[in-house]
């Protein structure tokens, strides 16, 4: 995708236009000595920019330090596809540009943090980033040490805490995955043990039938009946627990009347398989032998229970497989970092991974627009965003409420809304929720980096936008992702 970029057309810088006395009238330089002012005047220059002209662009290398002498300027930041104006001023002496040029080279390139445009004809005093950095380090060494410690310390702390938060999230997700895996694994183990017992009982019952005085044609009919009953059970309609209990009573009474041994142990197996008294009557008619009926009922019961146990094992192992697939989808360990994705797959896998945290008290409502096109993204990073937003929503509701995840299209962007029915976010806090280290959680329960990380992933990495809408009982985080590759991709 080709994006036209506006050129920066600055007029040539004119050296020597400002004297030391002129510079002393600017609040930034008013406390400097005459010698220092003379050095700055000799190394700086003045530059004029016509109204509407672009002075510097966010993300470009920070090569110059600007001080406003006259005119009106506006600073803006890029948020998704929009430019958001952050400030507007005509105050003489305000500065911008390479304001961090004094920091020692730590491998992080210095870039302009905002875009500056002249709203009217403007004039600036300009120093190169190299000269500004040198004067700061030479003239104010103690202040530079303090500023470097503050800036680099904050950067290191943010990186360390961010890494710690990722490790904590990974630990929590791993514990949750183990918890989710334990249930189906235990169910499969129980069903396997029970299946072994039923197969052994079937072998014994088959031996008794073979030793008994059962005509070959009757034995063949019995085997045919077994297959017919199993097929009938597979096609039986789903019953409620109350209906199954009533069916158990009917089957138990029917078996008691015909002196079937251990009828109340066998009846639940037939009821669970959806076999009714009509079917048992048909079995009795086909066998036409009261002596063979008892053994046939137990033989068929073992076969039914075996099928049910195998279905339980299939369901349990299928659940394990689904969880493993969800974990792979969540982490994307077997896929490239950047790709075109369906956002619903990441949302679903995140819900599975957070199932233990969501709990039974939270109702999950998914309102997906399945017709949405794919978006270019780093899926593992987006899943981190979904994790942070869903986790925050569940905590806001204290484990009880409705979590609503909605996907829609808005012009050339896909919108993912994650909403909760918690108490809401106060107005005075809304504008700070994306600030690093800001948190309303008690000490030890939040780092204040979850939403900051989410913001940087959505806005900086994906060229999207994330915003908050909140009222008591209806809080929504809206993530907007572009349908096309960002210009820098």
Automatic annotation (TrEMBL):
Highest rank taxon of the organism: Bacteria
Family matches, as InterPro entries: cNMP-bd_dom, cNMP-bd_dom_sf, HATPase_C_sf, HATPase_dom, His_kinase_dom, RmlC-like_jellyroll, Sig_transdc_His_kin-like_C
UniProt GO molecular function: protein histidine kinase activity
Keywords attached to this entry: Kinase, Transferase, Two-component regulatory system
Domain Histidine kinase: residue ranges: 305-485
One Pfam assignment: cNMP_binding
Domain Cyclic nucleotide-binding: start-end pairs: 28-136
UniProt-listed CDD domains: CAP_ED (cd00038)
Coiled-coil region: none
PANTHER family: HISTIDINE KINASE, SENSOR HISTIDINE KINASE
Statement: the UniProt record of this protein carries the keyword Cytoplasm: no
SMART domains, alphabetized: cNMP (SM00100), HATPase_c (SM00387)
Enzyme Commission number(s): 2.7.13.3
Catalytic activity, reaction form: ATP + protein L-histidine = ADP + protein N-phospho-L-histidine
Gene Ontology biological process terms, A to Z: phosphorelay signal transduction system
Source species taxonomy: Bacteria, Bacillati, Actinomycetota, Actinomycetes, Micromonosporales
Top-level enzyme category: transferase
Name of the featured protein: histidine kinase
